[in-house]
Amino acid sequence: MYPPLLRWVLYATKGNAVIRPKILMRLIHINWVLVMHGLDEIVLNTPYFRPIRFLALCTPYYWLNRKNELAVSRGVRIRQALEDLGPIYVKFGQALSTRKDLLPDDIADELVKLQDRVPPFGSDIARAIIEKELGMSINEAFAEFDPEPMASASVAQVHTATLHTGEDVVVKVLRPDIEGRIHSDMGLIYELARIAEKFSPDARRLRPMEVVAEFEKTTLDELDLVREAANAAKIRRNFDKSTIIYIPEVHWEFTRQKVMVMERIHGIPVGDIDKLRAGGADFKLLAERGVEIFFTQVFRDNFFHADMHPGNIFVELPAKYIAIDFGIVGSLSLSDQHYLAENFLAFFNRDYRKVAEMHVESGWVPRTTRIEEFESAIRSVCEPIFEKPLKDISFGQLLLRLFQTARRFDMQVQPQLVLLQKTLLNIEGLGRQLYPELDLWQTAKPFLEGWFHERMGPKAKINQLLKQFPEFAQQFPEIPSLLYKALDNAAHTQQQAEAQQRELALLREQIDSHQRHTLWAMLAGATLISLAVLFQ
Q1: Sheet holding 313-316: strands in order across?
Q2: Can 109 be counted among the known catalytic residues?
Q3: Which of 110, 116, 112, 111 lies closest to 87, judged by CA?
Q4: pLDDT per residue as tens, the chain (536 positions)
Q5: Are 327 and 260 in contact (CB under 8 A)?
Q6: For residues 130 and 169, is the Cβ–Cβ distance under 8 A?
Q7: What is the chain's Cα-based Rg?
Q8: Where is ATP annotated to bind (predicted)?
Q9: Is 0.85 topped by the overall pTM?
Q10: Which of 441, 436, 370, 353 is nearest to 399 (CA)?
């Protein structure tokens, strides 16, 4: 097994003996950024690296004035380093900020401040990508096209345009060579995670390899704009004719893997409270509808928008949401839905044993977990929270604390639950920003009880039987032949069993006979020896 650094070098050079200058410069740049933000102290304080601290003292940068950097909190230093390293590391930091079940609060809270904003690439490059993907010129596709992007992020940028039919649209274009850069940086991030997992007990507890794998999947999913368009179309169908949320329409004739064209929406950013207030927005209704939209997506549709931060949500006055950016979505299995609903209702009733049992039955924690011990741990976390008034209790924070507790009992990473927790925290934070008195518990409880009764009640069981009846009716004529085959197999099995019993009985008789003959032979031999001794 190669040392970690050598493994990375072999990865970067694809097995060649000489590292490419570009990769080498990237490694040097990353090392310099970490040093300048004082993050080398974290590494050198790891027990495995303490013996080489004296080498660090011999390097020039240690004689620089770094007191200001080291006086800043570690969370701020990590955030600033990620910002300096570039957009992929910013996205990684944003993904980490949602994993408060893994990170210390001071680091997670600071990473929330990361902004995915990068300078736009040239309009001539954007035009070339669009024309190549669509197989037509810009003028053939659009009546008007604004070369200046209205928004620019790490993966793509967005231009406004007008179709020849007169419809206003937005054109999302992936950055050139973004996939290659992501793969290159992901290789290094993976290697850093391996090093952290191997040499740092604290980092090992955070399971960095699992976190990086989860981030890689989410990021690569965002590189297929056809997939994002399909997500948008599905959620649009789910909320067709809805009065509480609107999803813009996808123009499929102009959508490809690297280009997506959608209806342009006009609304007030949900984070612009002053503008909403001036327009007469109904904040209480907006907050309650946000909760309703979340639980409707999770439990009715089983397909939810998992990136509902304020930048992706707008408001049509007085209280209708408009959602954009569907690159990240989540869904739950039917069993996950069932267990999650039961967990939530058990929380409402403070039935911690039920919560512990649900975690074990669902397979979220090992079957060997002691229910009593797990129940006690959950109670110690939740009881102090429930002493507060219900309107002051954070649903998302409670779920977060539960996940943190379950980690101690070796709960495996559940990507769908991580996305759910992240989305719930976003929705709850947004709701309380709009209406601080929001009682999420009272808003959610009737919805959960209604869903549970609808899915698990007597009527649901009857509907399930009725749904299965056509399949049963189709198989009904085959029942006699199936029954005959079953009886024939049973008879054949019985005959085989009886034959085996006869063979065993015969073998037992042979063994008994052999044992008797052996005993008589031994007795005869002993008698002869005795007589020989007597008459000697």
Answers
A1: 245-246, 320-323, 313-316, 268-269
A2: no
A3: 116
A4: 444 444 444 444 444 444 456 666 776 777 778 777 777 665 555 554 454 444 455 555 555 545 555 567 888 888 888 888 877 788 788 777 766 666 777 888 888 777 667 789 999 999 999 999 999 999 999 999 999 999 888 889 999 999 999 999 999 999 998 888 888 788 878 877 887 777 766 666 667 787 788 788 888 888 999 999 999 999 999 999 899 999 999 999 999 999 999 999 999 999 899 999 999 999 999 999 998 999 899 888 999 998 888 888 999 999 999 999 999 898 888 888 888 888 888 887 889 999 899 888 888 888 888 999 999 999 988 888 877 776 677 777 777 778 778 878 877 666 677 778 778 888 888 888 888 888 877 787 777 777 777 776 666 566 666 666 566 566 656 667 666 566 666 666 666 666 667 766 666 666 666 666 665 566 566 565 555 555 55
A5: no
A6: no
A7: 33
A8: 150-158, 172
A9: no
A10: 441
Annotated binding-site residue? 157: yes
- If one counts every other C-beta atom within 10 angstroms of the C-beta of residue 396, the result is 19
DSSP state letter for 272: -
Strand partners, 320: 316
The answer on whether 380 is annotated among ligand-binding residues is no
Contact 164, 143 (CB under 8 A): yes
The single-letter DSSP state of residue 306 is S
The SS3 assignment for 525 reads: helix
245 bridge partner residues: 321
Give me 124's structure tokens: 């001539």
> Could you tell me how many residues make up the chain?
536
Kindly state the tokens that stand for 297.
């997506």
The 8 Å CB, 24+ separation contacts for 133-139 are: 133/256, 133/257, 133/258, 133/259, 134/254, 134/256, 134/259
155 marked among binding-site residues: yes
76 is in an annotated binding site: no
- Could you tell me the domains of the chain? 4-117+181-219 (no CATH), 118-180+221-265 (3.30.200.20), 267-456 (no CATH)
Terminal Cα-to-Cα distance of the chain (whole angstroms) = 78
50: tokens are 């303490």
Residue 497 is which amino acid?
A: A
Q: Which of 40, 101, 307, 325 is catalytic?
A: 307
Whole-angstrom Cα distance, residue 124 to residue 126? 5
459: Cα separation from own chain's centroid: 33
CB atoms within 10 A of CB 1: 5
Q: State the number of CA atoms in the 13 A half-sphere of 215 facing the CB.
A: 26
Report the C-alpha dihedral over residues 142, 143, 147, 148, rounded to 10 degrees. -110
Distance CA 526, CA 116 (A): 97
How far is it, in rounded angstroms, from Cα 245 to Cα 291?
A: 12
The SS3 of residue 322 is strand
150 annotated as belonging to a binding site for a ligand: yes
Annotated binding residue 412 = no
Torsion angle of the four alpha carbons 40, 41, 43, 45, in this order, in degrees rounded to the nearest 10: 160
Pairing mode of beta strands 268-269, 259-263:
unpaired
Reading the block at residue 170, the tokens are 């937005």
